[in-house]
Amino acid sequence: MKMIVDQDLCIECGQCIDLCPEVFDWNDDGKAQSQASEIDSDNEACAMEAAENCPTDAILEA
Length: 62
Fold this sequence. Notes:
Blueprint: E1 3-5, H1 15-19, E2 24-26, E3 32-34, H2 44-53, E4 59-61
Antiparallel strand pairs: 1-4, 2-3
């Protein structure tokens, strides 16, 4: 499983980072990004929760 963050939709709220810091982190532009090229099974649930709770639907499964 892989997740990407649409940088045009990200509003820098940090909710995904709070919910799943193992997968998401800030990039140099101050927006969220996925830091995992492949999300392991231990982190799939929190990554999906982060995507479902993103207020702008910026997190997409790739």
